[in-house]
Write a structure and sequence with these properties.
The two termini are 28 Å apart. The strands form three sheets. A nine-stranded mixed sheet has the order 1-2-3-13-4-14-18-16-17, sandwiched between helices. Strands 8-7-10-5-6-9 form a six-stranded antiparallel sheet, with helices on one face. 25% of the residues lie in helices and 28% in strands. The mean pLDDT is 93. With 422 residues, the protein is of the alpha/beta class. It is globular and about 75 Å long. Helix 4 (227-240) packs across helix 9 (406-421) and helix 5 (272-283) packs across helix 6 (288-295).
Length: 422
Amino acid sequence: MNNAEKLTEFIGNIPDAAFGARYIANELDDYGFEELDLSKPLRLKKGGAYYAVKESSSIIAFTVGQNLKKPQFKITAAHLDSPSFKIKKAPTLIDKGYIRLNTEAFGGVAASSWFDRPLSFAGRIIASGETYLKPQEIFMDFKRPMLTIPSLAPHFKKALAEPDLQKETLPVCGVLSEDKDFDFEKYIAKEARVAEGNILDYEFTVYNAEKGAFLGLENDFLSAPRLDDLLMVFCITEGFKKERSRDYINMAFFFDNEEVGSMTSEGAKSVFWRDMLMRIGRGLGYSNEDVAAACQDSIALSCDVAQGYHPNYGEKYDITNFPVLNGGIVIKYAASKTYSTEVYSAAVFKEICREHKVPVQSFYNRSGIRGGQSAGALFSAGLGLPFVEIGLPILAMHSARELCGCKDIETGIKLFKAFYTI
């Protein structure tokens, strides 16, 4: 199995952020990482490998160099969430026998791209446990296509427009016969084998159940759901889990809620990440002052997919900085600092890429167009670390299916293997 095929399998196992954190934790277990209990003081050692899960949907992992002299960090950060639809509470809707589910958009979803696709849903049920403060968490992924959002025939509408998210994007999941009834809460309780009265809460994500597919004259491209940002998560994981630095603390942050602004306890703006740097330092016998000082000699990469050049809409791009698919890793710049790249840290990153023959491209928004932004600026401000904003280029960003270059997958893995060994 090549790396592009591994990526499609990886994506298929991660329908939402909580499944992503759990999947990565299982992989790290296989590579000898130790799970930490965040409710207790950390006891760490040089040469150790550790991870911790935050709120079930974010994960921080790190390895400690055997020859570590001071708590210097090499950090990558990427998000596990993707634009999608979340199922609301009491979602059951019956109309002329059709069963629909009430949903809301999560992030900047390109809603019309979700029409007429085979969809499924996955998430967590929180049920009564041994004590009030220790409820039971049950993960559920239905995997098989169960939902769809049928589009309206063009005969009934005069113009195409983004749909009404409360009316036109509610998924259909069945048709009732006269002698049957349906209730979503009863259904998930039965599937989870939990008494309905014991369900305290739940969270389910509607996701595209289609598999990835290779396209192009020579399989140049991979078309798949959730490339934003699982493409970067996959490449980081492949580089991080096997490689070790002797002189640094290698770290990977995989976090939730980037698509909705990161304003959560497990999001990029949380104090959790800064606290963890200090806790790791103390767990290795260093003071907070030692960590703060060493951070000035650390480097961090904010890793989110980049806007690849679209040949049908060339006028939307900067006239000299337009990354193309299969052209290599992208450094993102913005005078507004919506991207966190600083000139000094970018120079250090470029030197790493040059040394290891990793191709580099640049991205700027076209002047007068705000464009996107990522969580790198939040991390940079919150941690006080120099960041570089990087990503691999994709097309159809935020669509139900996105497109990346197969050659870029290899480039990404090569980059992070190099980054984590220096």
